[in-house]
Design goal:
The complex is a heterodimer of chains A (156) and B (182).
Chain A lengths: L1 H11 L5 H13 L4 H45 L2 H28 L8 H13 L3 H22 L1
Helix pairs in contact in A: 2-3
Chain B lengths: L1 H15 L3 H16 L5 H13 L4 H14 L2 H25 L7 H25 L2 H4 L6 H19 L5 H15 L1
Helix pairs in contact in B: 1-2, 1-4, 1-5, 2-4, 2-6, 3-4, 4-5, 8-9
The chains are: A mainly alpha (156), B mainly alpha (182).
């Protein structure tokens, strides 16, 4: 989706400069929430303040909203259909594999090594086996990183 | 009451949804499947499949879908989708206003140093939680389904991880295989 956004707002419409877009990309990735929406809010604000943000957000949300609402309204009525059932029975394990594959890519990007591998392993087990909320993992991991930067890194 | 719950739940998801769509996945699943039981693990997997095939982000898709299925009303979708966007809105407006180059701040960098491995764990948990009998069958009661599912899982994993095959194509192939084999 990012090349699409870049092409529209940097190349075609020239709403912001390329370097600024890269900064914006970093901010949108760091901030919580959906990245495309974070970008839309920022660009909207730059052009027309809060009103611009509102319309940009509405624009980027609308297509998904309409598509998924339509599916939600009609999916259950043909889900019982034996053909659809068979198709989704095949799709489900594939989708789980499509989530498993990026897990390893993300581990590489996060530079997981033998000293940090316990963090994702313990986090995953706590969520899986003890139904711990992922919010706790985020809060504890973020605080841990903060404390590490404040006390450990400085003493080295 | 359900509307308030929907709002609160998706606001939380929007607020703590670090790490992009995949990072958000486990949060949505924990809230929607494990905590509130608004949908089963199988239904959740279906929604992820739909999100892979349509252009929209999973965060929005899940909010819109769950909002409708949990309430049976259009307004459920509107409220859940609004709630998941609201934290971004508040945060990004604040950032735009002051345009802090905060991603280069050493404190933020340190926080993310801890956050990143945690998000990898979140994603791994999403995979584990979705490995249910509903999605895979069970070797005791439904060996055939279990074998087909496991083969599809391994095949798609290798195709995606090693050969970088397009996910939409892989989903279509799985659908066709499901139709032929079951």
């Amino acid at each position: 989706m990012i090349p699409l956004i870049e092409n529209e707002i940097v190349t075609k419409r020239q709403w912001i400069k390329k370097e600024e877009f890269l900064d914006l990309l970093a901010i949108s990735q760091t901030a919580p929430g959906v990245m495309a929406i974070n970008i839309a809010i920022f660009i909207g604000y730059r052009l027309r303040k809060v009103k611009g943000s509102l319309f940009a957000t509405l624009g980027v949300v609308m297509p998904s909203f309409v598509i998924i609402l339509t599916i939600a309204m009609f999916f259950h009525s043909f889900k019982e259909n034996p053909v659809v059932e068979k198709i989704f029975k095949g799709i489900r394990p594939g989708v789980v594999a499509l989530i498993a594959a990026p897990t390893f890519n993300m581990a590489k990007m996060a530079r997981i090594n033998r000293y940090t591998i316990w963090i994702p392993v313990v986090s995953a087990l706590l969520i899986w086996l003890l139904d711990l909320s992922p919010i706790w993992i985020i809060v504890v991991a973020g605080t841990g990183g903060f404390l590490w930067g404040k006390y450990v890194k400085k003493s080295i | 009451m359900i509307y308030l719950q929907l709002f609160y739940t998706f606001f939380k998801i929007g607020l703590f949804g670090f790490g992009g769509g995949y990072g958000m996945l486990s949060l949505i699943q924990a809230e929607v499947v494990t905590n509130h039981e608004w949908m089963t693990a199988g239904e959740f997997t279906d929604i992820v499949a739909v999100s892979q095939m349509t252009p929209g982000p999973i965060g929005i898709n899940a909010a819109t879908y769950v909002g409708y299925t949990a309430t049976g009303s259009f307004w459920g979708s509107v409220i859940a989708t609004f709630a998941v966007v609201l934290p971004s809105f508040i945060l990004m407006l604040t950032i735009s206003k002051f345009f802090l180059k905060y991603q280069k701040h050493p404190v933020i960098e340190a926080v993310f140093k801890g956050l990143r491995p945690g998000i990898v764990g979140l994603l791994a948990s999403a995979v584990l939680v979705l490995m249910t009998t509903e999605n895979f069958g069970s070797p005791q009661t439904d060996l055939y389904t279990f074998l087909v599912s496991s083969t599809l899982f391994v095949g798609v994993f290798i195709a995606s991880k090693v050969y970088k095959v397009n996910p939409i194509l892989l989903i279509v192939i799985c659908g066709v295989m499901g139709f032929i084999l079951y």
